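User: structure tokens for this one?
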Amino acid sequence: MAARAIDAVIFDLDNTLTDFMKAKEESIAAAVDAMIDVGLPVKRREAIDAIFAIYRDKGIEHQRVFNFFLEQTVGRTDDRVLAAAVIAYRRARDASLVLYPHANFVLNRLLKDGYKLAVVSDAPRFEAWLRLTALGLQHAFDVVLTFDDTGFRKPAPEGFRMALQQLDVAADRAVVIGDWKERDILGGQNAGLHTVYARYGDQYSQYADKVMGQGPEPDYAVDDLLELLEVLAKFNAAAADGKARS
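Assistant:
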């Protein structure tokens, strides 16, 4: 086999493999419409903004966001309104949570070529597995680590180091790809990994708690997940060239 520089690829999950913020916005909008349809006296845009304000305060994965919203809005949790919101949210989430273009092709190609694959995510464990399973990726990765598994959030390097240990791969022979420079790229650099910025996933959202493109510079940036294969080819070509010169 030709000399290869990279043995493993570590993926961020949300906004790297799937457009999480788009799905979140569409799900919340559907929930608000459902609450209005059963009689909640709110304005649509104001309600959506209020729900995302709760997320900013309590975390984007908070499970009782509609309870807090109803308590703020009408002073109590109305189960009829809450049920309408939850059902609409789940239906919209299931419909809107999709992989980015070429994700399946890239993952299958990496597996075929013998790369070890991992996910390191700040999401809660069960929520991450829900998304991976809904996307058909529950068997695609050798290692899946979430905040519940590591106890650390990016840019802390511990999650990446745990992944490397479980993959049995050295840091300088692994690449991390993620959409958030201040977390994924900095965290990868802190762990000694090569880094790829998923620029396609760092798109503007008025509800995202980050500034697009802000953070340390990665080794490479890609505008399509398919370009990851080209990046790996560049790493590996450099390794082959170095071996030929030695």
